[in-house]
Amino acid sequence: MFENASRTEISSLGEFRLIDHLTKNITLRNNTLKGVGDDAAVIEHEGGTCTVVSTDMLVEGVHFDLSYFPLKHLGYKAITVNLSDIYAMNAKPKQVTVSIALSSKFSLEAVEELYEGIYLACDRYHIDLVGGDTTTSKHGLTLSITAIGEAQKEDIVYRSGAKANEILVVSGDLGGAYAGYQLLEREKRVYLDNPNAQPDLSGFDYILERQLKPEARKDVVDILKNLGIKPTSMIDVSDGLASECFHLASQSALGITLYEEKIPIDPTTYNFARELDIDPTLCALSGGEDYELLFTIKQEDVSKIEFHPDFSMIGHMTDLASGHKMVSKSGNVHDLKAQGWTAF
Ligand code: ADP
Ligand code: MG
Fold first, then answer.
1. What is the location of CATH 3.30.1330.10 in the chain?
2. Ligand positioned closest to the Cα atom of 88
C-alpha cells in the first residue's frame, strides 16, 4: 500500500512539522476565529460568546502503561488534560465527548473503572459528558476526548499575544509528573526483575499524584480575573516548559529569556531527580505533563501577582533577534533547547 518512488518517513518531520505540513493550506470558511495552532480552536457566535474546542488522543503503550496506571486514574487524567487546554484559552470547559477503542482483553468491570475516573473528573470540574464513540481495537486501549468550553471573545487569550519585555509567569511547580513517571518506571523494572519485591513508593506521594492524578488549573482563570489581570498570551505545560516557551515566543514573533533559579520545583521532585542523577531543571524543561499554565503579563501587572503563592515569575519576552535563552543558576547564558516528546 502507498508504494511509490518517493517515500518520506514521518520521523524525518516530527510532530509539529507534520501537523504544519498537513494543515498549512486550510482556508477557514465559517465563523472560526482561530483554527489549528493554539490550545483550542475558537468559534464565534452572535453577541460575542465563543465556543472553544480541543481534542486529544491517548494510546496504550504510547501515552500510558496499564501495568502501573490504574484505569480509574487514567479516566480521570484523560479528562483533566483536555480541560487544561480549555483553561489555557482563559475559557471555562462545559462539555466533553469520550471515544474509546477496546481490545478483548478489557472486561466490563475494567471499562467501568475507567468510567469511574471519567465521571469523577466530570463531577469535580462540573462538566457534562455529552457523547462519544465506542469501537473495538486489535490491540489495547485508545481514548479520544474532546473538550468544549465557553468564553467571551474579549476574554480569550491566545499563544500569540505576548509583547517584548512582558513578564513570563507559571502557576504551581514543574517537573513533578516526569519525576513520578521515572519513579513508576523504576519500580516496574524492580518488579519485573523480582516479582516478589514490594514497590518502594513511600514518601513520594506528591510526584506520584502529579503523574497519576494531575489536576487542570481551573482556579487560575478566576484568580487572574480577581487580581484584575488578563494575560497577554497563555499555554498549558503539556510537553515541558522549554517547548511551551518556544510556542509562546514563535507565535508572538518574539524571543524569550528564562531564569533557571526562578523555575518552581517541589522539593520531592528535586530530591528524587537528584537520587536518579537527573538534573531537576531538565525535568521542568523537558518532562512535561505538569498541566500548569504558562502566561505573559504586562509589566504594570507585576505588583498584583509578585507575592502570590500560586505563581512564579520565571522570565520575560525579548525581541525576536535575541532568541531563546536560559540564564543558569551560575549566571551563564545558554540557548534554550526544546526536547519535547518525539512521538514518532
Ligand atoms: P496541545 O499540545 O495543546 O494539545 P497539539 O500540539 O496536540 O496541541 O496540537 C497543536 C495544534 O494542531 C492544535 O491546534 C491541534 O488542534 C492541531 N492538530 C493536531 N493534530 C492535527 C491533525 N491531525 N489535523 C488537524 N489539526 C491538528
Ligand atoms: Mg495545550
1. 10-155
2. 2
Query: What is the CATH topology of the domain spanning 10-155?
Result: 60s Ribosomal Protein L30; Chain: A; (3.30.1330)
Q: Which ranges constitute the DSSP H helices of the chain?
A: 15-23, 71-87, 108-124, 176-193, 205-212, 218-227, 241-251, 267-275, 280-282, 302-305
Q: Which three cell numbers stand for residue 324?
A: 531563546
Residue 281: count other Cβ atoms within 10 Å of its Cβ. 22
CATH 3.90.650.10 placement within the chain? 167-335
Q: For ligand 1, is residue 38 a contact (CB within 6 Å)?
A: yes
pLDDT value of position 333 = 96
If one residue of 13, 19, 52 were mutated to test the ligand 1 pocket, choosing by the most ligand atoms within 8 A of its CB, it would be: 19
Confidence band (pLDDT; 50, 70, 90) for 88?
very high
3-class secondary-structure state, position 11: helix
pTM listed for this prediction: 0.94
CATH tag for 167-335 (out of 3.90.1310.10, 3.40.50.720, 3.90.650.10, 3.40.50.300) = 3.90.650.10
130-146 confidence digits (pLDDT tens)? 999 999 999 999 999 99
3-state helix, strand, coil in the chain (%, to 5): 35, 25, 40
Cα(232)–Cα(302) distance, integer angstroms: 13
